[in-house]
């Protein structure tokens, strides 16, 4: 039982990181119906910016987090403007291929500049541990979960209480109608990319601290898993992405803890295929009927 | 069309001439072993690209898991070939590998091909990852270390034979009534369905045929390069194949062939700079999509351009 609770604790902290990345996927998908493959790489670059800020500029956790989020926000907007905006009228497949290309471009440009080797993150947070019975919780996990929750509350506030948030919701429902109502669609889409990428940047820093190592290809797997989390929760749905992220995190730690950790990725992908077949709209998503 | 029409004879003659020319170059040593590897890569990539083009370009089902089928062919072919170290073993390995890939293609295709567009892309990607993880954990595939010392039977003759056969067979499939059904699914799935086309059947068929040839490519690969490990068939391999198809033009067999040759040459020249090659690949994908989304050939074939000059009168009237 203790082991089970321990796995749950680990799963929730890993899951909150997935949830942060999944939020970016789900917001972008909600607004322009694009699986932004490059999102996982924005997260990787966020981790590197955090690394640079803490190692070379000797900054602490919070300044590094904020610098990383701000830079990733800018990066997200640039990616949208350069790669996706010219394709807004093209087929979905064309945009998807562009997103894959963008993802590879970020990975290998990064590899070109920082090298392929794994770097170890500086110790930013104390690794103090708390014992609750036999369950061990460390300080880093508390920081990760707290940061994730704070950011999610902020996002809920932005989406539901501000004017920009209202514009985001309007554009995601009907882009043309929103434009006719005087909403600046381009700016709203840019803002969505900025927020989503900022969250990915935050996740990058948190992962760097948690796993202590970063490399230019670190974004591929978490990116895909976060996407699975977004699909599981119902893509386009913000609370769904959070639930999905935590579920995938817990699932992964349970498979590693009780089964064979080599099969961890396969189980997550099998889970995705099962969801897509049984309930493609996800846990909280709405069913959309296809029209001619 | 007659089997021995003027056009077919010309194609056959051209192929034989090309085969003989390259064979002479190899025997005389003008084409050194280094370029022979490029040649093998070109042939294998042509088979992969043309078979993926059938699924993605002609049937319109976006698949990101082609490397998965290739790995099945490669492993099955290699294991059989290592048990039976003979020419029979080699050929049996190729066909068993291709059949295994096709069967897996059918099994995976039936549930996943109900999905559309980006969901299908992710599902096929997931499936290829699952195949990779399974090979990583099986006893017979020797896990992450991979298989070593696979007997080498693949040579230029076999590569040429299988590549030509794959291109011609897929080309004929596309021009058959089944192929036209596949194209109609790409153009408009709902319209195709309302015209009485069993869309699931044809999608699975295209998927299985694509997987079959990817399996052949995989088996040829394993027998040419002696060595296999699951890491060779990851997500990036699938993207490699996709880049060829997209660059050549989704829906053009000859486009895939041209793009496969072009990219293999670029890869050879950038051998020493892997990172620059990948940056170039990635930038190429983005730039093609923004400026010329239909690729080099679009949906046209090279032969379309020559038809007016070489085609006989009857063909022109049609």
Structural description of this entry:
The complex is a heterodimer of chains A (292) and B (318). Chain A is mostly helical and 292 residues long. Chain A has one domain (2-218). Helix content of chain A is 73%, strand content 4%. Chain A contains eleven helices and four strands. Chain A has helices at 2-32, 39-55, 61-84, 92-114, 139-161, 163-173, 175-180, 185-211, 220-233, 238-258, 264-278; strands spanning 119-120, 129-132, 135-138, 213-214. In chain A, the strands form two sheets. A two-stranded antiparallel ribbon of chain A has the order 1-4. Chain A is globular. The model of chain A has no long low-confidence stretch (mean pLDDT 88). Chain B has 14 helices and no strands. The N and C termini of chain B lie close together (12 Å). With 318 residues, chain B is mainly α. Chain B has a domain at 44-233. Chain B is globular. Chain B has helices at residues 6-27, 33-58, 66-83, 87-112, 117-137, 156-175, 177-187, 189-194, 199-225, 235-248, 253-269, 274-291, 302-310, 313-317. In chain B, helix 4 runs antiparallel to helix 9 (199-225). At the A-B interface, helix 4, helix 9 and helix 11 of A face helix 5, helix 10 and helix 12 of B.
């Amino acid at each position: 039982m203790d082991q089970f609770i321990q796995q749950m604790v680990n799963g929730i902290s890993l899951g909150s990181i997935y949830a942060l990345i999944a939020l970016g996927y789900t917001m972008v998908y909600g607004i322009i119906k694009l699986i932004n493959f490059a999102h996982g790489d924005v997260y990787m670059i966020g981790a590197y910016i955090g690394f640079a800020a803490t190692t070379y500029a000797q900054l602490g956790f919070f300044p590094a987090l904020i610098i990383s989020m701000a830079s990733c926000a800018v990066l997200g907007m640039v990616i949208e403007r350069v790669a996706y905006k010219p394709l807004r009228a093209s087929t979905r497949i064309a945009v998807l291929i562009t997103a894959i290309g963008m993802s590879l471009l970020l990975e290998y440009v990064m590899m070109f500049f920082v090298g392929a080797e794994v770097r170890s993150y500086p110790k930013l947070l104390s690794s103090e541990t708390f014992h609750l019975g036999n369950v061990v919780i460390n300080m880093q996990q508390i920081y990760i979960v707290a940061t994730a929750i704070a950011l999610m509350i902020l996002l809920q506030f932005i989406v539901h209480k501000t004017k920009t948030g209202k514009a985001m919701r309007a554009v995601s429902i009907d882009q043309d109608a929103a434009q006719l109502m005087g909403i600046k669609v381009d700016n709203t889409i840019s803002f969505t990319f900025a927020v989503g990428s900022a969250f990915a940047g935050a996740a990058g820093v948190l992962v760097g601290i948690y796993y202590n190592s970063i490399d230019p290809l670190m974004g591929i797997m978490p990116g895909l898993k976060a996407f699975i989390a977004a699909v599981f929760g119902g893509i386009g749905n913000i609370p769904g992405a959070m639930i999905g992220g935590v579920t995938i995190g817990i699932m992964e730690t349970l498979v590693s803890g009780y089964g064979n950790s080599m099969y961890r990725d396969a189980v997550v992908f099998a889970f995705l295929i099962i969801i897509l077949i049984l309930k493609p709209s996800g846990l909280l998503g709405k069913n959309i009927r296809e029209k001619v | 069309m007659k089997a021995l029409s003027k056009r077919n004879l010309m194609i056959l003659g051209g192929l034989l001439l090309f085969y003989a020319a390259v064979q002479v170059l190899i025997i005389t040593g003008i084409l050194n072993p280094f370029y022979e590897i490029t040649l093998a890569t070109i042939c294998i990539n042509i088979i992969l690209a043309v078979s993926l083009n059938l699924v993605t370009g002609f049937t319109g089902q976006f698949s990101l898991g082609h490397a998965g089928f290739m790995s099945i062919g490669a492993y099955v072919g290699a294991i059989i070939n290592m048990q039976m170290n003979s020419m029979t073993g080699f050929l049996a390995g190729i066909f068993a590998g291709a059949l295994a890939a096709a069967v897996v293609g059918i099994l995976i295709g039936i549930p996943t091909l109900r999905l559309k567009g980006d969901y299908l892309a992710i599902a096929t990607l997931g499936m290829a990852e699952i195949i990779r993880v399974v090979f990583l954990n099986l006893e017979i595939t020797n896990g992450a270390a991979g298989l070593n010392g696979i007997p080498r039977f693949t040579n230029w003759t076999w590569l040429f034979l299988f590549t030509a056969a794959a291109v011609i067979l897929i080309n004929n499939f596309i021009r058959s009534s089944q192929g036209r059904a596949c194209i109609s699914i790409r153009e408009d799935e709902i319209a195709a369905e309302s015209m009485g086309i069993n869309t699931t059947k044809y999608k699975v068929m295209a998927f299985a045929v694509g997987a079959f040839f990817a399996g052949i490519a995989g088996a040829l690969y394993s027998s040419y390069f002696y060595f296999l490990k699951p890491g060779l068939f990851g997500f990036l391999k699938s993207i490699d194949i996709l880049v060829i198809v997209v660059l050549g033009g989704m829906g053009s067999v000859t486009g895939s062939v041209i793009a496969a040759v072009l990219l293999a040459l670029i890869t050879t020249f950038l051998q020493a700079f892997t990172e620059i090659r990948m940056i170039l690949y990635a930038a190429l994908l983005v730039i093609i999509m923004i400026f010329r989304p239909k690729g080099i050939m679009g949906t046209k074939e090279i032969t379309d351009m020559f038809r007016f000059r070489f085609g006989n009168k009857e063909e022109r009237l049609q």
